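Recall that a protein's primary structure is simply its ordered list of amino acids. Everything else, from secondary elements to tertiary packing, is in principle encoded there. The following example makes that idea concrete.
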Amino acid sequence: MKLRYALKRIFWLIPTFFGVTILAYFISALAPGTPLDFLIDPNSTITASEYEALRHQYGMDQPVVIQYFSWLSQLLQGNWGISFRTSEPVLGMILSRLGPTLLITVTSVVIAVIISIPLGIFAAIKPYSWIDYMATGLSFLTAAIPHFFTGLVFIYIFAVQFRLLPTGGMYTSAGDKGVLTLIQHMILPTLVLVFQEIGGLIQQMRGSMLEVMEEDYIRTARAKGLLEYQVIIHHAIGNALIPLVTTIGMMIPFIIGGAVVTEQIFGWPGLGTLMIQSINARDYPCIMGITVFVTFVVLIGNLVTDIIYGFLDPRISYK
């Protein structure tokens, strides 16, 4: 039954994938300006015939529908295109930016989960205690403060006032690419991302624990004479963690696509920064390449998350 469900989900991934690419391509085409506006020097004396020759060279003289199917046919042949902005292969650009993005996003998710799970558990075990109020207040604070503001505050405190950490980049301008330098540069963006993610995870874990603690099997375990910590560790926590799988699965677009705002603030050379640069330059091949890459990973990640959730929770029936 689970295999049948997985095959059904895989079948529905195909129209979803093409739907996302169509939407992204046509929205990009509706944006004002063309790549030629950024490729041609404003002070150049290019003639109308030369301009039309460039439009023909890049395929911009064709209708958007024809351009889309031309791009799609190339993609299905394994050709991700060449960037208008840098004249580099799009796939190579994406893969070169993927490592820095995964470095800070995966690190931030792991740290956020490590912090959120204990806080959510203790807040649920002792509701309306100082721990509960602290955890709830922290989650509301992280949800209310914009990410860019958090980043600017952290830069002002740790980089400007105390001069403990660099303001941005991945390495020093002198070219020092040591591990210690990398860690120093990733501390601030990672902290901002942890601050961004921790609130929702705390509330998710707290709510899940409170719901589990009211289940019949918890009351049965207590009636058998088990100590409270045994009930919590052996019966409550494991079941309360199941809904967290879905929450973490929903973070896949962020983990792969990068934190656009945070990467921009700290000058982090990830996929988010590459997407902003491509949008500003109307670099359609690069925009579509990133869209395809993130869409594919998200769809596969959601499929895997659903299947894992089914194995963790046998109460779910697949039809």
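Residues 111 and 194 are 7 Å apart (CA to CA). The chain has a mean pLDDT of 85.
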